[in-house]
Amino acid sequence: MTAQIVDGRAVAAKLLEDVARDTERFARTHGRRPCLATVLVGDDPSSHTYVRMKRNRCAEVGIESRYVELPADTTTADLVAEIQSLSADAAVDGILLQHPVPAHIDERAAFEAITPGKDVDGVTMHSFAAMAFSKKGFHSCTPGGILRLLDAYDVPLAGQRAVVVGRSPILGKPVGMLLLARDSTVTYCHSHTRDLADHVRGADIVIAAVGRPELIHGEWIKDGAVVIDAGYNPGNVGDVDYTGAAERARLITPVPGGVGPMTIAVLLEQTLAAANSVHFG
Q: Is residue 98 annotated as a catalytic residue, yes or no?
């Protein structure tokens, strides 16, 4: 078996076309454009690259981008104050705090300063609870993008055994909640799980989100499984042995070009939704 490649770029492009069209409609109706404020702390090169990509996508779909760059020695209190100011600013519809922040900052405190109605990256505890209870709120963008990919390729979720390898609060945990809400049987694993290979071998759907290059071996993948690799490591290497897994899987995401483009597309879609909610409740 040779896996079909899940083309995240193509699925994201279609979603962004819809966002661009609806953004123009919003601008004509309300005389302004939706606004996404991006906050970046420090000088991490990768973070600067990610922020630049997001701002470029904003420009492409007609969303206004406000950029707040803070020095690496910014305190937690100062960062929280900046985010609270953006939360109170009626001209800002969505807020993104670029992850990760410098180690001395309490990242959770900074996330929680984002008012839920502007948490378009889905990083607050309020958003996680909304995902877990299937209530109104914004999805964490990468998990939301993963579900969009699965739907785009008509992957059945109800009754399927899904193994999520990773437990971060903005990726592993929420994607499991979203899968559970769609009636998948979800097992959470991580880098310390005993007999990880056995868990993966039983999975119909494997979500790799642990941040360890090629932690998941190709021979662990069940024939015909769906493999979504949300990991990204230096050298364009994912969390899955792509070559080996592609020999067994039915569908597999490449790294890059799989999950990543969907993350930004969902972020911008949710920014537009946040802008619309101001006017339509």
A: yes
